[in-house]
């Protein structure tokens, strides 16, 4: 499918989705968020895709929701349109892993979009922030909840109340990103991580993603029970037999997603 606000390249089981509104530092407008939802749904259905990398440009992952598009809206407009609501839910409904590869600004809705992915690898020039407070609003697509879970109350509260940005070093130290890489290596590193995931048993990958996400949705006791049942269920797969046999035979496993 052809998109106007993003590009999609599929190679070796990895879909690389690049946000592409350079004139607005990839600000999220209704068209972009809708196209992103469609691109992710397509990737989820596509047998040639096992992992997704979502990125922007070297200057901006996304500088937030599109302020020009939002500025004149009323409460009734955003409430009845459910601005971004359903399309953002399509991102977290994606079953295949999504890696956010963040260079430059990830602000407001851009930071929230990165946090809605499964993990974030960032470039040395990355800057994260929730500056909505400077516009007289607050985060609206998960920022107050997700950032707080990533970095804790104190740092999250400071960022939401003052609008200050966090650089890559602080983002790694605080647990917002899994790692920081040189800016020129961002895409190769993120794609290499995606390829590594695509070589695993895709049944185990799905189960791992579901189980980690449970940590955010339920109690520790329920989450551990969910994990235990998923772990046990994986013993019904051919891939478990193959993975363990390959280890014992000192060879690489040949997973068949069965
Ligand atoms: N929306 C629209 N256009 C933008 C945005 C944006 N968020 N950010 C940048 N642009 C545009 C600028 O207007 C400019 O366009 P033009 O040349 O036509 O004026 C172009 O991108 C380049 O930007 P700058 O000239 O400002 O570039 P700088 O390098 O000087 O500054 C910054 C870069 C610091 C990133 C600066 O652009 C900036 O502060 N941007 C706004 C950041 C921001 O406040 N983001 C939060 C937006 S609100 C939000 O995300 C709410 C999310 C929840 C929505 C939920 C709905 C229910």
UniProtKB/TrEMBL annotation:
Family to which this protein belongs: Belongs to the enoyl-CoA hydratase/isomerase family.
Record keywords = Fatty acid metabolism, Lipid metabolism, Lyase
- Which residues does UniProt call coiled coil? none
A GO term, aspect molecular function = enoyl-CoA hydratase activity
Q: Which CDD domains match?
A: crotonase-like
Signal peptide location: none
What's the protein here called? enoyl-CoA hydratase
Provenance organism: Paracoccus aestuariivivens
Task: Provide a GO biological process annotation.
Answer: fatty acid beta-oxidation
